[in-house]
Amino acid sequence: MGTRKITVLPGDGIGPSIIDSALQILDKVGCDFEYEFADAGLTALEKHGELLPQRTLDLIEKNQVTLKGPLTTPVGGGFTSINVTLRKRFNLYANVRPVLSFAGTQARYENIDIITIRENTEGMYSGLGQKVSEDGRSAEAMSVITREGAERIVTFAYELARKEGRKKVTAVHKANIMKSTSGLFLDVAREVAERYPDIQSDEMIVDATCMKLVMNPEQFDVIVTTNLFGDILSDLCAGLVGGLGMAPGANIGKDAAIFEAVHGSAPDIAGKNLANPTSVILASIQMLEYLGMADKAEAIRSAISAVIAEGDRTTRDLGGSHGTTDFTQAVLERL
Q: pTM surpassing 0.85?
């Protein structure tokens, strides 16, 4: 089969340094990948005059698996968001955001293990039909949910639950008020649930879900929902385990997958060796699982877990006083 080629987008700000950490760890655990680097975001704009150069798009398509650092979308015209553009371009319909408690993170909870699966291409978030009236007194946007889109994402959630031996899938909606769009999503979720009698199915209104996630998050296992709700809930879940520095994300489609740190590019601490690389390392673990390399994924996860639990070489956001390179070195030694 030869060496697996991976497209790597180091990204902006702290991106290159945390991506470097992740690659060192992947090499150490013996993945034997060949990395093909490409530019996107501000870095690409400065070097090539565009945010998403054609070469970058070609590499994402060719290698089908991409590891990506945080990108900065400049304020102003053109792209609404590079991330949204990539999702649409490659039809990455499933956004997968796992959160897992690690001892030593100063998070409020100890035994969280939740995966939020968010539809990535439709609904309110996709920005369809946005317009503001001439006089600036009214604005509107359009939300479109399709049966196909809903079925695809809910099926994805159940298949993932089955593959990972998960017990329960909760479909999150607002069908009581948004009877058309959220109503269709819920109808489809109920139909799909019947095909998976081996998995417990639950449904919950989005506001109640937020309250329950704060009061008793241990009851959740896999959450599946529409684009905007998923955007909000996945960040809430990240907060349960210590914030965005502990939360990776995957964007998965039929022909391509992009694995990323979900936090921003933090230009204020770029180049200062302060960033916590955990999010992008966890994203690389997701990538390994996607590629069927579960043993290597588990080795890295337990090494990270041990380093954070010991706490003597962690970054500032984890309560330590060390930098990116020290933390990475500690994980490498563990491996």
A: yes
